[in-house]
Design goal:
HIT family, subunit A, TAT_signal, 9 helices, alpha+beta, CDP-diacylglycerol pyrophosphatase, 10 strands
């Protein structure tokens, strides 16, 4: 989806009162999805992703052990994976807790999930879609700012990188870990940091929040993560960040991803 888009994170899942019946919501979603356009779905309801996960995927996983409309649901780790309508290989990681987006304080609560690490593990679904393994620096994760998304449920895009962007980022493959360096990609200014883990202190949300310590500042940020080299476990990852407050900055890094995944075809 080009969104382009708990309660506490440790609390036991409880049933939420519904303003409409589950059957009515299901009918609404089926009609929207049948339209075949993610933009139309988002225009109908900015909470559509949340309803798909909360009313369809999670209940199906709980009742039958199958993820329903989603590709996967991990009840223990509290996230779902959903194939996006847009693109041959684009997937979304969506928390099964109500988390609005990059600006949510819940991302920094005690015991908050390391969603970036979970999303990175889910890159295997991209590779299954294109039927081949890809180097880690040709795969990317991305989240849009509050002002460049259409869905008000946190979702991390998982897809291929544009080859020319991966080539440009290669100059940062050996950067000293933990240091921001500025660069221009696709005409926009980004700062780039190489990290050796996506968890805890290396969590990209935490890295970016150190310089954007309030909800309003985080709401303007976009983050992309890709392998620093072909093998991220060895080479590390690149955290790519821009904000709407930066000169020539942007609130969306989704354009650095290639939803056609041409790198899988050698393009």
């Amino acid at each position: 989806m080009r969104t382009t888009t708990s309660d506490t994170l440790t609390s036991t899942r409880t049933r939420r009162p519904l303003l409409r019946s589950a059957a009515a919501w299901a009918a609404t979603l089926v009609v929207a999805l049948a339209a075949g356009a993610c933009a139309r779905l988002a225009a109908v309801d900015s909470n559509a992703l949340w309803k798909i996960v909360d009313l369809r995927c999670v209940p199906s996983q709980q009742a039958t052990g199958t993820p329903g409309q989603c590709t996967a649901v991990d009840l223990d780790r509290r996230y779902a994976i959903l194939k996006d309508i847009v693109g041959r290989s684009q997937y979304l990681l969506i928390p099964t807790d109500r988390v609005t987006g990059i600006e949510s304080p819940l991302l920094f609560a005690p015991h908050a999930r390391d969603y970036w690490a979970d999303a990175w593990a889910a890159r295997r679904y991209v590779e299954k879609s294109v039927k081949r393994s890809l180097p880690d620096n040709q795969l990317g994760l991305e989240i849009n700012s509050k002002y460049r998304r259409t869905q008000n449920q946190l979702h991390i895009h998982i897809d291929c990188m544009h080859a020319e962007v991966s080539a440009a980022l290669a100059r940062h493959a050996k950067d000293a870990p933990g240091e921001w360096r500025w660069d221009t990609l696709n005409g926009n200014r980004y700062r780039i940091m190489r990290v050796t883990t996506l968890m805890q202190a290396g969590n990209p949300f935490s890295r970016v929040a150190r310089d954007n310590q309030n909800v309003e500042a985080m709401a303007m940020q976009t983050i992309l993560v890709t392998g620093a080299g072909a093998f991220a476990d060895k080479d590390g990852w690149l955290v790519v960040n821009s904000g709407m407050e930066v000169d020539n900055g942007t609130g969306s890094a989704e354009g650095l991803l290639d939803h056609a995944c041409r790198v899988a075809d050698g393009a």
